[in-house]
User: Which sequence fits this backbone?
């Protein structure tokens, strides 16, 4: 029985991945301060957790596996680059709370996910400090940037995954090999979508018109997300928190129509089942559902990583 502690747990992507793999497990605890994300987690996993501030968390409980997707806003190129130095008070600096909790609980394995920009010259020192501290605590580290599009999801989402295995645990770890992508954006689209999702002024698709249509996975030199639309045969851009302002990803459909992706389509692009989304939709607004998708971790990638962990740690 593997006891899981999800820190910055969101909607529970790690627990979902472990469920899919059929690993016998128990949720030791779940730590998330966003009350709306907690509602969705409870709906998905039939639990009854309350919001918890990680800065206040200290419990004497047995834990085997810690998963944390600590806040990325201050590392992300989409943010203000405030950084995550210890003691700085930024949201991203909360990653150091994980180190405190690892020291207290001594799990067999720790999995950390964050944006690729954490490895940039400005922010890499924090990643290096984290890895060094894990080594001092008695763990060996493995790290690699993985893209969701290499693991069955048509989304161009690169993230750095850092795996730390306690030194007394036998076995080695190798990251999963990339797989050919057989799906495109059109494969996650709903069959019938409310007219409210369609863009009414998307009349010109030529250069200088209302929208830039992206046919591949890259976004080129365009920076205005509100004016991007992705061809249905392309792959989606990285999901983000969609904080209003017409920022939801958009798809260009046959007949020169453009619409926003629906919240369900965004959840599909994060690897969640429709049944998961339907449960969350009953307790949250579309605004929160978009945000929760953008803040989550792609379940398919976590599945591949966890399946490659030494059997002794699970």
Assistant:
């Amino acid at each position: 029985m593997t006891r899981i502690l999800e820190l910055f747990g969101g909607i529970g992507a790690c627990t979902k991945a472990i469920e899919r793999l059929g690993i016998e497990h128990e949720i030791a605890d779940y730590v998330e301060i966003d009350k709306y994300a907690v509602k969705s987690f409870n709906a998905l996993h039939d639990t009854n957790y309350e919001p918890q501030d990680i800065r206040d968390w200290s419990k004497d409980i047995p834990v085997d596996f810690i998963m944390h997707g600590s806040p990325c806003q201050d590392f992300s190129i989409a943010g203000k680059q405030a950084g995550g130095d210890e003691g700085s008070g930024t949201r991203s600096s909360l990653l150091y709370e994980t180190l405190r909790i690892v020291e207290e609980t001594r799990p067999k394995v720790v999995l950390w996910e964050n944006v690729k920009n954490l490895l940039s010259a400005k922010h890499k020192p924090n990643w290096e400090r984290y890895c060094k501290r894990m080594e001092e605590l008695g763990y060996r580290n493995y790290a690699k940037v993985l893209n969701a599009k290499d693991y069955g999801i048509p989304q161009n989402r690169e993230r750095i995954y850092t795996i730390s295995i306690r030194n007394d645990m036998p076995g080695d770890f190798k990251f999963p090999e990339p797989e050919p992508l057989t799906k495109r954006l059109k494969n996650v689209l709903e069959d019938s979508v409310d007219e409210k999702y369609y863009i009414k002024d998307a009349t010109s698709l030529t250069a200088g018109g209302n929208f830039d249509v992206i046919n591949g996975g890259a976004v080129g030199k365009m920076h205005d997300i509100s004016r991007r639309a992705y061809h249905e045969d392309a792959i989606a851009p990285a999901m983000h928190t969609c904080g209003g302002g017409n920022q939801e990803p958009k798809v260009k459909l046959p007949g020169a129509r453009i619409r926003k992706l629906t919240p369900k389509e965004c959840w599909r692009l994060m690897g969640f089942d429709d049944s998961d989304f339907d449960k969350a939709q009953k307790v949250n607004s579309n605004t929160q559902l978009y945000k929760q998708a953008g803040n989550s971790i792609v379940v398919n990638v976590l599945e591949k990583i966890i399946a490659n962990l030494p059997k002794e740690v699970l």
